[in-house]
Model the fold of this input.
Amino acid sequence: VTALLPGSGVTSVGWDLRALQSCAQALRERLSPEAWRLIHETAAQFEQHLRAVLDRPGPPPLTDVLNVLARADTHLAAITGAQTDRMTRDDGWRLLSIGRQIERLCFHADVLAETFAQGLALTEDGFALLLGVFDSTITYRAQFQARREVPPLLHLLVHDTDNPRSLGWVARTMRERFAKLARHDPGWAADIAAGLPVPEAWPLAELAASDQVLVEHLKRAAAQAAELSSLLSQRYFAHVIGAEQRVWQ
Done:
């Protein structure tokens, strides 16, 4: 549990929240008072509440730790909502959105690949875990009731472009935002776009019939998304090659 605290390194939740706060501090004049307050409170309250749990005698109760994480998750959702609802849809917003979709695609693809690779997808816990991670439990039950089958699961989590957590929706949004961001250099954009994943076009029958095929598609998609992140960093944030690129004035 102590690994969640900021001092545990760059992989800890606490460290990430402090990094978010530090970035927000650097952009303080560009943030609304509400957005800044949300970010500051999220980082401060997470560490405060977690330390309060850890300072109690004996092993920390798992329920209390999960409550601290759930509270932070709610705060992060509020931060995302403020960004989505209030930011001008300029190149800065597009870059932020692309980053969010890249992170989501990589994480969800890795979770889905690992669950199927370990043969856990059709177990009760594994099935529930996937739906929970993709925030699609209610949607799945509404569409498929209590069926625990691979084809409907993959349809919802991979193909369904009406589900904002599916790989298809995430990848399509990522491609669209990238096309607008890179609209001033269509040649470069076309070359990059050709290498981006299109999960909604993967043949569902093949995915459902072979875990190996599914895992290969997922790992390739995660690698392609990570490559896009590197290319964007090189294009817009590297200062040693090419012409200067500014995302906003």
Notes: The chain is about 70% helix and 0% strand. The mean pLDDT is 89. Residues 56 and 186 are 58 Å apart (CA to CA).
